[in-house]
Design a protein that fits this description.
Layout: E1 2-6, E2 27-28, E3 31-32, H1 33-43, E4 48-53, H2 57-69, E5 73-78, H3 85-92, E6 102-106, E7 109-111, H4 115-125, E8 129-134, E9 140-144, E10 150-155, E11 161-163, E12 171-181, H5 196-203, E13 209-213, E14 219-221, H6 225-233
Parallel strand pairs: 1-4, 1-6, 4-5, 8-13
Antiparallel strand pairs: 2-3, 6-12, 7-14, 8-12, 9-10, 9-12, 10-11
């Protein structure tokens, strides 16, 4: 099955840690985040993977080549000239996918979520996308109805809120950066620089985007020095 690892980000929240190397090549328990992501996806059957690169692209391409030498099936989507964010990055790589649903995975995520269970849930529900979420108090959250369908978004720091349905009983869910997507989604995407979150909010007005809650799994986003340290110290 096909998948995409988003690995092009600059990792600016990590400060000097990512000045000389990309976030994807930071080590957690002796392995790079990129290797951990590739191994996890491949072990769950997502063994044909495209990876976007931008920050320190030469280092990334070398690391991807090294993984290829071990037998992993990896393709590069080169964004070294212009960082497209997740939405624009996926659209640029659309040629890679076939007519089956595929997985999207942020390289900075460390978790024991069952990707096959997420994929099966997506097939069962039949929405255009299914997002892995957690019951966690993030600053930016999706708002879901009782069926787990995305109906809005909220920034709890600024008070900004986008609601797509008249429902007073929406539940806050934190997005985990892992999602399964139907290839029909490309009909609604466009070339440019934008995030999948922005796109999903727009898409949710007319299409069913489901959520898959995995709060019982361990989860780390290594986007800050503190979180990188926590993930590195976790026995895993």
């Amino acid at each position: 099955m096909k998948a995409m690892i988003f690995a092009a980000g600059k990792g600016t929240r990590l400060g000097d840690i990512t000045a000389a190397r990309p976030k994807a090549l930071l080590e957690i328990r002796g392995k790079t985040a990129l290797r951990l992501a590739v191994e996890k996806l491949t072990s769950h059957g997502f063994d044909d993977i495209i990876i976007n690169v931008h920050h320190h692209p030469d280092q990334m391409i070398k690391a991807i080549d090294d993984l290829r030498q071990e037998g992993f099936r990896l393709t590069v989507s080169d964004e070294s000239d212009l960082l497209l964010e997740t939405g624009g990055g996926l659209y640029k790589a659309r040629w890679f996918f076939d007519d089956r649903p595929f997985l999207l995975y942020n390289v900075d995520i460390i978790t024991d979520i069952d990707l096959n269970e997420l994929y099966s849930y997506h097939i069962t529900m039949g929405g255009i996308a299914t997002l892995a979420v957690r019951n966690h108090s993030d600053i930016r959250v999706f708002l879901t109805d009782k069926e787990g369908i995305i109906r809005g978004w909220r920034n709890k720091s600024t008070g900004e809120e986008i609601i797509k349905v008249n429902d007073k009983n929406l539940t806050e869910k934190a997005f985990s950066g892992i999602h399964v997507v139907d290839p029909a989604i490309f009909k609604y995407m466009w070339e440019g620089i934008y995030s999948m979150t922005t796109f999903y909010i727009k898409l949710s007005e007319h299409h069913r985007i489901y959520t898959f809650c995995h709060s019982s799994n361990y989860f780390f986003d290594i986007g800050t020095p503190d979180d990188l340290a926590k993930a590195s110290d976790f026995p895993g």
